[in-house]
Amino acid sequence: MKMLLPQEIQANYVLPALRRELALALIDQRKLKQGDAAALLGVTSSAISQYRSAKRGGTLKFGDEILEEISISSKKLEKGTSEPLQELLRLLNLPRAFDIVCNIHKKDDPRAENACAGCHIAPENRSVEENND
User: 45: which of 36, 52, 89, 124 is 20 to 30 A away, CA to CA?
Assistant: First the structure.
């Protein structure tokens, strides 16, 4: 069995799901057109179409806390007060996003349970401050 790094889980599961939800928030909440959302996020219109159909980024479902943070990010992006990279990094660093990574890691790799204490994103090792400007 291949040992997964937490960063691989972030890249393969969490980041695509965050991009998907951010794209949906821009379209559904902020009423942007698909092409405008794509341009704002720096992805193709085809990628947005795949996000909308859950072909891309559809394996994770976020709770209300992260969805609220995604809504905040979509508002900042629409207003031009932040950049996609800043917002995706902010969302990835939310404690709840860390918990998702840990849960997937434990589910996909039984050895992960013993490695959690040494992980930089284990709950006891976090020093992330949330910024909700």
Answer: 89
